[in-house]
Write a structure and sequence with these properties.
alpha/beta; Four Helix Bundle (Hemerythrin (Met), subunit A); 4 domains; five-stranded parallel β-sheet; four-stranded antiparallel β-sheet
Length: 382
């Protein structure tokens, strides 16, 4: 995938449809006229101007973008540094180029003033920021996956609604593969069945691991120190036995970290941290099931896990966590619903959950979670 210097993926822009921008410009300055189009990209709007009879000079800093611009003079340059030494009937700052920082906007305006007396802009209210946006920084990367090297990954930088930024990696078949710093959590591995899925039934050691993880999750949910310590010890032994049957290296490091954090939290009776670590341990165990089970079976187990997590977050009076739980459930259900019979009961329970979570009605969310658990227990995979 080709990427412009600002992180814009060229192939994505090639697929964007025309939206009638040419007609809007024609209302401001009718053709024929000379236009300086700044930030032309792949020429989506340039084509419209040519059809309308304008004489266009198209400018962009990306040679990869300009390769797709036809039938006009093209200039590869940064807008701020452009000085062609000639004048145009109008300069164009479209595609929200005007909606930027004050200093960059002034630099853009200075360039326009050097080349034209009339400026046509497309803009959002000054100071507007998108709720979330993603900038592509690297493509065609090789990254270490749970079971070996994965090629074709890309690194992005995401702007969150709170104004913070976070680095993420997306890998083919995995969706959002990892997030944060190199020591961060591995996310969304459930979106793919491992390429080295094992043909044999899961060994009994993996079944024992599931039981041990379940016991830890329940003990942490109950904030039972003695039972949680016993369950953590059992989990440690079960994990050692599972390792002898072969566990992908990245899954090993992740489980080791989360089990260590769980043991520490239980020792100091930090139940909030213990709940969080127990949930991650349970998610890790579900990832390992993909080595032996179908994706849809694991996804239904994921839904059951998050349905169990909901009452814990309700009891903690954590409306934000409840919203996150519901979002995860909805996402997993989207990719699972088509493979089960009699989905109506789960649909109804999730609708009630969403309504309760959005209204911050935690008792209603608790009731809807119970209904969801019952509905999930009645599902049958086709």
């Amino acid at each position: 995938m080709s990427v412009a210097p600002d992180g814009s993926p060229v192939e994505v822009y090639l697929r964007l449809p025309e939206r009638g921008e040419g007609d809007l410009v024609a209302a401001a300055i009718p053709p024929p006229a000379s236009l300086l189009e700044l930030g032309c990209g792949v020429g989506r709007m340039t084509r419209q101007f040519v059809r309308l009879g304008y004489d266009v000079v198209a400018v962009d800093e990306s040679p990869e973008m300009l390769e797709h611009v036809r039938d006009v003079e093209v200039v590869c340059a940064r807008i701020e540094e452009l000085d062609l030494g000639r004048r145009f009937d109008a300069a164009l700052l479209l595609s929200n180029l005007f909606t930027t920082t004050a200093s960059q906007r002034q630099a853009f305006l200075d360039t326009c003033a050097r080349h034209a007396d009339l400026l046509v802009v497309e803009t959002l209210p000054l100071g507007w920021q998108p709720p979330e946006s993603v900038r592509v920084d690297k493509v065609d990367m090789n990254v270490p996956g749970p079971s070996g090297n994965i090629s074709g990954a890309m690194e992005v930088n995401e702007l969150h609604m709170d104004g913070t930024r976070e680095g993420k990696i997306f890998a083919p078949g995995y969706g959002e593969f990892s997030t944060g710093d190199p020591g961060g959590d591995l996310e969304a591995v459930s979106l793919a069945s491992p390429t080295d899925r094992r043909p044999d039934p899961a060994p009994p050691e993996f079944g024992a691991l599931w039981a041990a993880v379940r016991a830890v999750f329940e003990a942490a949910a109950d904030s039972d120190a003695e039972r949680a310590k016993q369950a953590a010890t059992t989990l440690d032994h079960a994990w050692g036995a599972a390792l002898s049957k072969g566990v992908p290296p990245q899954s090993q490091s992740q489980m080791k970290r989360d089990m260590g954090e769980l043991a520490t939290a239980v020792d100091v009776k930090d139940w909030r941290s213990a709940h969080s670590a127990a949930l991650r341990v349970a998610q890790n165990e579900l990832d390992l099931r993909l080595l032996y089970q179908r994706v849809i079976d694991v996804d239904l187990a994921r839904m059951a896990l998050w349905a169990d997590q909901l009452p814990i977050d309700v009891a903690a009076d954590d409306g934000g966590a409840v919203l996150a739980d519901v979002a995860v459930l909805e996402r997993v259900w989207e990719r699972t619903r088509h493979g089960v019979d009699s989905a109506a009961a789960v649909d109804a329970a999730l609708q009630q959950l969403r309504k309760a979570a959005d209204a911050e009605d935690l008792p209603a969310a608790d009731g809807a979670a119970a209904a969801l658990k019952q509905a999930l227990a009645g599902l049958h995979v086709r």
